[in-house]
Design brief:
Belongs to the HMG-CoA reductase family. This protein folds into three domains: 2-56, no CATH class; 84-123 and 239-399, 3-hydroxy-3-methylglutaryl-coenzyme A Reductase, Chain A, domain 2 (Alpha-Beta Complex); 130-217, 2-Layer Sandwich (Alpha-Beta Plaits), CATH 3.30.70. It has 15 helices and eleven strands. It has helices spanning 2-10, 24-39, 53-56, 100-113, 137-149, 151-158, 192-209, 230-235, 249-256, 260-278, 289-298, 306-309, 344-352, 364-390, 393-399; strands spanning 72-81, 86-94, 117-128, 131-133, 165-174, 177-185, 214-217, 238-248, 283-284, 312-319, 322-332. A hairpin with a 2-residue loop joins β10 and β11 (322-332). The relative contact order is 0.14.
């Protein structure tokens, strides 16, 4: 081990080369020891963890030196009246923001005391959009028509993975560029890998059958992956989910410390007028990215998918006996298996909610997770909008110690 550390420090081998000379587990120790010498730091806490980095190497991480640990808090019980998430759930949230779990917990208390929130998945389909280039606009329309005519052949090529189902292909033409947005059901996985593998077969077939058509990018950004986009906001990506709840006046007064009228005025001014004036894309909400990021990190989701998953519209309307809250999240991108969900702590977080692994029927656990995510986001919105309406935001952050010490 010491010899490998010396070679790394001397630049005779690279971090990625270490694994050629020892086990994956010892390679972690070698890299960390070398990095300590190179940077004159002590990585004591980075080296304390329970994850088997030997298994995670190459599957989840390259050149590992240890683990970055984030505190995990629990919020709940959150009562959800969904099609897949039915009952009360404890929600794990990984965050370094001192007031977040407390804020979401308050929103959860208001929702649960009001009988729970209804949640429904409106549509679903993970997407990938390869970009083809042809000679002219007329050739572009011919390719579009050919795709429509040969849909079932493309479907056959895509569906060699038993959990992958091609639902539709949405063509978009810009001059001689043709974007083919493939919309797929991916079961309990988030599904990008299986779609990408399936599309390699499809692309080969499209190029073979359409002389002059050339795929210049397997992902052409009409997907749209890991970037907020109007396409995802309107058409949806992953799962489009909505939740709503009516919170009685008594609960608004006791738990949220404000009034329905103040909530509605604040939500309209902030989430609609403010967001419109700022020109936000998918940002007609107070802070959906906060609970979604915390939930995703705790549960082994791809944090980069927060870009789309946190797009949302939060509505609040005054009712005779209280306030009606709703949230629409058109692009929740998540899964119950694969990727980071297999890591030990992330797996446990999913198990807490009964969402880990393949569901019965297939896809049910991923749908359950999406419903819980939407309900959790709603709880965060209920709490923050109410705190702003009551003028309590700064006081709460100061009391809960955010940023102190």
């Amino acid at each position: 081990m010491n010899e490998l550390v010396k070679k790394l420090v001397a630049g005779k081998i690279g971090f990625h080369d270490v694994q050629k000379f020892t086990t994956a587990a010892e390679a972690v120790e070698v890299r960390r020891a070398a990095l300590e010498q190179l940077t004159k730091t002590k990585l004591e806490h980075t080296g304390k963890y329970t994850i088997d980095l030997g298994i995670a190497t190459n599957r989840n991480i390259d050149n590992p030196i240890g683990v970055a640990q984030i505190p995990v808090g629990i919020a709940g019980p959150l009562k959800i009246n969904g099609e897949y998430a039915k009952g009360s759930f404890y929600v794990p949230l990984a965050t370094t923001e001192g007031a977040l779990v407390a804020s979401v917990s308050r929103g959860i208390r208001a929702i649960t005391t009001s009988g729970g929130c209804d949640v429904r998945i409106l549509q679903e389909g993970m997407t990938r959009a390869p970009l083809f280039k042809v000679k002219s606009l007329s050739e572009a329309t011919k390719l579009r028509d050919w795709v429509n005519t040969n849909f079932y052949k493309l479907k056959e090529l895509m569906e060699q993975d038993r959990f992958l189902k091609l639902k539709m292909v949405q063509p978009f033409i810009v001059g001689r560029h043709v974007f083919l947005r493939f919309v797929c059901d991916t079961g309990d996985a988030m599904g990008m890998n299986m779609i990408t593998i399936g599309l390699e077969r499809v692309v080969e077939f499209v190029e073979k059958e359409n002389k002059g058509a050339r795929c210049i990018a397997l992902s052409g950004n009409m997907c749209t992956d890991k970037k907020p986009s109007a396409a995802n906001f309107i058409l949806g990506r992953g799962r489009s989910v909505s939740a709503d709840v009516v919170i009685p006046k008594a609960v608004v007064a006791k738990v949220l410390k404000t009034t329905p009228k103040q909530i509605v005025e604040t939500n309209y001014g902030k989430n609609f007028i403010g967001s419109a004036r700022a020109g936000t894309l998918g940002g007609f909400n107070a802070h959906v990215a906060n609970p979604i990021a915390a939930l995703y990190i705790a549960c082994g989701q791809d944090p980069a998918q927060i870009m789309n998953s946190a797009m949302a519209i939060t509505s609040a309307e005054e009712e005779k006996d209280g306030v009606y809250f709703s949230i629409l999240m058109p692009s929740i991108e998540s899964g119950a298996l694969g990727g980071g969900t297999n890591l030990p702590t992330q797996k446990e977080a999913l198990q807490v909610m009964g969402c880990y692994g393949p569901g019965n029927p297939p896809g049910s656990n991923a749908r359950k997770f999406a419903e819980i995510a939407c309900a959790t986001a709603l709880a965060g919105e209920v709490s923050l909008i109410s705190a702003l309406a009551a003028g309590h935001l700064a006081r709460a952050h100061d009391r809960l110690g955010r940023g102190k010490g």
